[in-house]
């Protein structure tokens, strides 16, 4: 199968971009198991269109690399007829006019937008325009080792827990039994990725950008944001409930390995943890719970989504829109949900998935999603650059021991220049 995927990518130049009326090409990012599932999900479309040949192009690459390939494909003569895009691709593609507004075509192919989660659908809407149909999405939440909590005499956290509750649990789970200064068990895993620590700042009443997404000063350096960032970095520097992160290596992979080994009590995860941790249930008892909030601040988390769109210059619009509709319906969403990949964006399919899950994991994700809001990546064209600056800020706070207030203020001014708010 790995060879087949490579062949698909290699054949992009000869198959994609064909304008034959009996051929539709699909560009998609998937690893080997996901590629097998997606190929099966093309079956109903192929059966309904026996004269239409679907040419899937599966790209087994990380999201940033896949995004670069999408942007290159959309300005080439070999552009796909339909393609997968993440929420972070939307601002640039809409600004460039590179993606088709699907709204005029959806009634003709029987798509009822009311079936989709409205918050997730809004990621792909601009006014009355719909630039993609959402395929699936994930809120961020906390996964915890239930066995570690029980051995420490701690009850399972509930969705209304606070930051104080979180730190109390994390401190009790952090254990250095041989007193050599290197805990055998850590209470929490500190995640340096801004996309993953953003909801922790929101849950403290702060934010990294102002509401219009065009500046950081007055928001990133506002007292609630500074306090939230100081508290989050303090997992490492003050409370010492998380291992000291290192830069330039697979830190997130290290956290996942510690959790799987039973040496990490809690960490922030997206829905991919469902698929990744299913096998671990033979050794670990796992629970999922909403991200805690600062007392007096409403619970909140970040939502990230993927969807299918059509290039603005595609000639075969009808078969392309029909394909997008088929790949985002309730049947396809339910199949991806059962595989542990994501929550379906068709509301009824997501609710059915949660009801059928005896472990209660999907219900936890669905509850968290009710307090979710889209991340900044779906609104800010320069988010990749903003994210890099924010990641550097957290690295300085956790490794260099710099003053948080002064460093955050400098970062806010740097982001203002990057976003064009100041010269």
Low-pLDDT residue spans: 1-19
Question: What structural class do the secondary elements suggest?
Answer: alpha/beta
**Tell me about the biggest sheet?**
7 strands, mixed
Shape: globular
Instruction: Report the end-to-end length measured between terminal Cα atoms.
Output: 51 Å
Provide mean pLDDT, rounded: 91
Count of discrete alpha- or pi-helical segments spanning 4 or more residues: 19
Give the tally of β-strands.
13
Radius of gyration: 22 Å
Strand content: 5-15%
Q: Percentage of helical residues?
A: 40-55%
Present the secondary structure layout.
Blueprint: H1 2-10, H2 12-15, E1 23-29, H3 32-41, H4 43-48, E2 53-59, H5 63-73, E3 82-86, H6 90-96, H7 118-123, E4 125-126, E5 129-130, E6 133-139, E7 141-145, H8 146-151, H9 163-173, E8 186-189, H10 194-202, H11 223-237, H12 251-260, E9 264-269, H13 272-277, E10 286-289, E11 301-309, H14 317-327, H15 330-338, E12 343-344, H16 347-356, H17 361-369, E13 372-374, H18 383-400, H19 404-419
Parallel strand pairs: 1-2, 1-3, 8-9, 11-13
Antiparallel strand pairs: 3-11, 4-5, 6-11, 6-12, 7-9, 7-10
């Amino acid at each position: 199968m790995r060879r087949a995927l490579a062949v698909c990518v290699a054949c992009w130049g000869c198959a994609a971009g064909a304008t034959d009326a009996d051929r539709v090409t699909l560009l998609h990012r998937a690893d080997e198991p996901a590629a097998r599932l997606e190929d099966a999900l093309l079956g109903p479309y192929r059966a309904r269109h026996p004269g239409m040949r679907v040419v899937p192009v599966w790209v087994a690459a990380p999201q940033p690399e896949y995004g670069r390939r999408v942007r290159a494909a959309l300005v080439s003569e070999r552009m796909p007829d339909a393609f997968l895009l993440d929420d972070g691709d939307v601002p640039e593609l809409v600004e460039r006019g590179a993606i088709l507004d699907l709204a005029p075509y959806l009634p003709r192919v029987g798509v009822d937008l009311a079936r989709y989660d409205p918050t997730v659908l809004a990621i792909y809407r601009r006014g009355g325009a719909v630039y993609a149909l959402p395929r699936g999405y994930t809120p961020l939440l906390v996964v915890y080792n239930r066995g570690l909590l029980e051995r420490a005499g701690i009850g399972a956290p509930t969705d209304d827990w606070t930051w104080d509750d979180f730190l109390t649990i994390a401190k009790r789970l952090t254990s250095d039994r041989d007193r050599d200064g290197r805990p055998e068990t850590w209470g929490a895993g500190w995640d340096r990725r801004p996309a993953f620590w953003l909801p922790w700042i929101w849950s403290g009443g702060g934010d990294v950008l102002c509401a219009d997404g065009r500046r950081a000063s007055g928001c990133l350096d506002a007292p609630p944001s500074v306090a939230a960032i100081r508290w989050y970095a303090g997992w490492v520097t003050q409370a010492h409930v998380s291992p000291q992160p290192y830069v330039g290596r697979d830190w997130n992979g290290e956290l996942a390995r510690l959790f799987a080994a039973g040496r990490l009590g809690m960490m922030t995860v997206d829905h991919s943890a469902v698929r990744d941790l299913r096998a671990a249930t033979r050794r670990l008892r796992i629970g999922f719970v909403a991200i805690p909030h600062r007392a007096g601040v409403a619970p909140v988390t970040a939502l990230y989504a993927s969807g299918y769109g059509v290039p603005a210059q595609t000639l075969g619009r009808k078969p392309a829109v029909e394909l997008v509709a088929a790949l985002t319906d309730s049947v396809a969403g339910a199949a991806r949900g059962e595989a542990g990949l994501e929550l379906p964006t068709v509301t009824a399919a997501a609710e059915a998935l949660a009801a059928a899950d005896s472990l209660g994991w999907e219900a936890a994700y669905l509850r968290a999603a009710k307090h979710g809001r889209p991340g900044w990546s779906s609104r800010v064209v320069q988010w990749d650059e903003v994210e890099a600056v924010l990641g550097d800020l957290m690295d300085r706070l956790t490794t260099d021991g710099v003053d948080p207030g002064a460093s955050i203020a400098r970062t806010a001014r740097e982001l203002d220049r990057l976003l064009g708010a100041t010269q």
